[in-house]
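Letters spell out the chain; backbone shape is given numerically. Both lines appear below:
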Amino acid sequence: MTPSAAGPSKTRPHKKTRHHPYANKPPRQPIHEDALPGVQKLKSALRQTKRLLAKQSLAADVRVETERRMKALDADLARAEGARKERNFAVKYHKIKFFERQKVVRKINQTKRSLETSEGKETKKLESALDDLRVDLNYILHYPKTKRYVSLFPPAVRQSGAPAVPVAAASDDNDERSKVRALMREQMERGELSTTPEIELGVQGQDSTRSKSSRKAVEAAPSKKSSRMADSVASDDFFGNDDDEGDSQQSEGSEAGSG
């Protein structure tokens, strides 16, 4: 019996292919070598390692390896806690540093302008003041990130906008401020920090301003499609323009007057 005589053959229904919702998900980025686990995970791993070392029946080779692991975990924990402390201080003192940076940069610019017209002893005095202000600016920009920030100006100056006068705080704060200032001055003399930090700060600000202005220009620029549509509308006789409308009104008025 031929297949045609037996009737039409049954075709299997087409099986729908399922699309996995995460099929097009980009692959995970590889973890950087310097990336550390969280503080809590490191503390938990360190506790487990210490429990293992507390066992008396632990083999010698396993004990040596576990002790190495414990030292590595201690170092990683110290680094992770330092990074967390650095992030917290960066958020906490951001506004204070921003205010003081503005104050010091403004004072540096004023001193530079005064130097252009100064003479004799006044020039030396202004140059010395300019050096101190540059040390203060590096103090703000490069203060140790894991230490509590000691402000250059009292809170009254920050809140009221009064003239920038050196703060008269506790002796401990003064000692810490003097130590950090001396460190900044030494690093500037060794060439590790810039001797004109206001210039580098200005260049960074200009770069960020340029990038913002370029983004705004791109957003404000009309697309080719919209410009083509505007051109087609302007050239269409149905829409006309203001001049055509004025001419038509004048012609209608003249016709009405003649009639």
Remarks:
- The CA atoms of residues 3 and 165 lie 104 Å apart.
- The radius of gyration is 37 Å.
- The first helix runs from residue 39 to 53.
- The mean pLDDT is 74.
